[in-house]
Amino acid sequence: MARHAFTLNGQPREVEAPDDMPLLWVLRDLVGLTGAKYGCGEGVCGSCTVLVDGAAVPSCQLSVTEVRGSAVTTIEGLSADGSHPLQRAWMAEDVPQCGYCQAGQIMGAAGLLAAKPQPTDADIDAAMAGHVCRCGTYVRIRAAIHRAAQEARA
Ligand code: FES
Ligand code: FES
């Protein structure tokens, strides 16, 4: 057990946790932010995705030690009221079905748009390849990412 300090959704945060505890469990079990979901635990489904220093990463694959001093953003921190362009685009395109993968999908898209504000279809396919949706919402996800990018451009 040790104390680990990082920034979480814009606020300084300290947790007492084993050094090798995955960030996903820190967020869900210690902090109580349950937006990031457990899917595979192996870094291949994307449902646990958060931003670490602006980059989309699977939180099941990072230990709390590895995010010491970093800025972590979860779906809960994307906006206070669901007004982030991606969240609005997701609603406009009626993207979710069961919803389980969607927080991870949106955070993956947030990482993509931070790196490439006007992504092509190929950019979206490449960036979102690690995000599995068992409900098959991929076409709507792509449309929503384009919509959010368009809104940012306007
Ligand atoms: S639970 Fe982390 S990538 Fe699947
Ligand atoms: S909306 Fe059901 S898994 Fe993606």
Descriptive report:
The chain is of the alpha+beta class and 154 residues long. The chain has six helices and five strands. The protein has helices at 23-31, 75-78, 85-92, 102-115, 121-127, 138-153, and strands at residues 2-8, 11-17, 49-52, 55-58, 71-73. A five-stranded mixed β-sheet has the order 2-1-5-3-4, with helices on both faces. Helix 3 (85-92) crosses helix 6. It starts with a strand and ends with a helix. One FE2/S2 (inorganic) cluster binds at residues 96-102, 133-135, 137.
Give a brief description:
The protein has 154 residues and is α+β, with helices and mostly antiparallel strands. The protein is built from six helices and five strands, in the order ββαβββααααα.
